[in-house]
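User: Predict the full complex structure for these chains.
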Amino acid sequence: MNGQHGLRTRLTRIGVLLFAGAYFALPIVSSFLFSIKDNQANVWTAKYYTGIVGAEGFWPSLRTSLMMAVLVIGISLALMLPTMLVVHLRHPKVRQLVELVTLLPLVIPPIVLVVGVRTVLGWGPDYFAGTPTAAFLSGIQDTNLPWVLVLTYVVLAMPFTYRSLDAGLRAIDLHTQVEAARNLGAGWGTVLTRIAAPGLRGALLNASFLAFALVIGEYTIASILLFTPFPVWLVALGLDHAQLSVSVSVLSLFLTWLALLSISVIGSRGGRSATLRSV
Amino acid sequence: MTVETVDVASGAGSSGPGLPPVEARHRRRLDPSWLALLPFVGYVLLFFVLPTAAVFWQAFLVTDPVTQASHASLANLTSAATGVYRQGFITSIELAAVSAVVGAVVGTIVAHIVLSMAGGAVRQFVLTASAVFANFGGVPLAFAFIATIGNSGILTQLLSGAFGIDLREDLHLSLYSFAGLVLVYLYFQVPLMMLVIAPALDGMRRQWHEAAASLGASVWQYWRHVAGPALAPSFVAALLLLFANGFAAFATAAALIGGSFPLVTLQIRDVLSGNVLAGQENVGAALGVGMVVVTLVVVAAYAPLQRRAARWSA
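Assistant: Here is the predicted structure of the two-chain assembly.
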């Protein structure tokens, strides 16, 4: 390899990186400019950011999404952590089976899952009228806190919860730690909260971040079931207030960055970050 | 298990005489740990298996609009595979395939450059950015592109104001077209590829390159005979993941294109929201079954490749 060739390679590489960088930076920079420009008066303005808080429906939709996010994180971890501990410590033979089951939601696109959820919800008045089942099915469709979305999002989050926790469990020698704790007289509750959870801090944070991002961004199921959490509200907003919806988008991207960065700082010992499909 | 001896040794007060032999207690103790799996199994059955089964059940049911009686039939699946719905599947598969192939190639090249030339800080920054962008799908992404190259987007206005170039007329780039959707999808497909392929690229030993070079191999020969084959299984597996990702995508397209574009995900939405003829709800389920079949075919190709890829990354 001669010097000229090396220089050309390096220039090509820098060119590719600049092109990729421009592609990823342009929409963000444009969005920001778009959101601080007043088209009528042709001046720069901050009103599309200060106006977010006062926009109609902002707080209710955000509150619904945040409450759902907290519930989904809580239920996901409460369901998956004990399950995976038991599998890792006691029944390693079924580990692959559990993994397969948690990956299955990736095979069913959300737009397909919601078809089935809608059907099942319809069974309430159709077949179970007057029974506790019907009461349950209508009870989970509260507009302010749609439990049906919470329960379904836990399923959507399962592949990512599993992968995060699995990476964390593989990284630490849980078997020895748990056995040592049990030898010292710790009960299973103590083991869960004082041995497993601290050792899996990074993995738990990672799983929480992914579940949070999923719930905050989920549009498909919520819009089909006619609920109005944050992303559905954002689409409705975009119809009448283009600039406002873009300023909200810029903010949400910025907050995602912040959340991920803080998690990677807090849980720097955690496992590799997985990803999810909120598209 | 040492657990048993501890119980006997430390629990002097609680465990009196007449304790069953350790062996018997041991056997009984194994059962409750299986019970700990019950919540998980129950949850999956109730909130995943049941709705999924309902989709399949519905797809094979035809309801008579007059008598309201239902009977099993393949009619829904037939109409889901013909006419506009057939076109929907074709466009969706094309969009997923194009965005997956371009995303996979570009993602691999960019990841390779970043991982091979950059130091720790840049590498960490790029991987974190990839994680953010791979998750930055859906509604905000659509709005970001509308603000950039939409009808009154910043770039659209800049080009027409400063250079007299019309994005749509002169560059044939409309955001609300197939090419436009590919451009938007790449925004999450490329970072996803970078995240997924990074471990495989890391696994390629520096010594391989040096060994090939010392044997007189050119850069092309190194990629053709050494790196390429080693990377191929991971690459194809990641490609299939990207395909499934693009195929299932709904929110981005829905927020971008309000009206009609022949994507199967949008068509399911239209069927469910009653934008089409009454009595067609079950066709929505049939379209869903079609999507699952397409995804399953892709996943079936994914599993053996994953096993082959594991050989190299071990």
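Strands of chain B lie at 61-63, 70-72.
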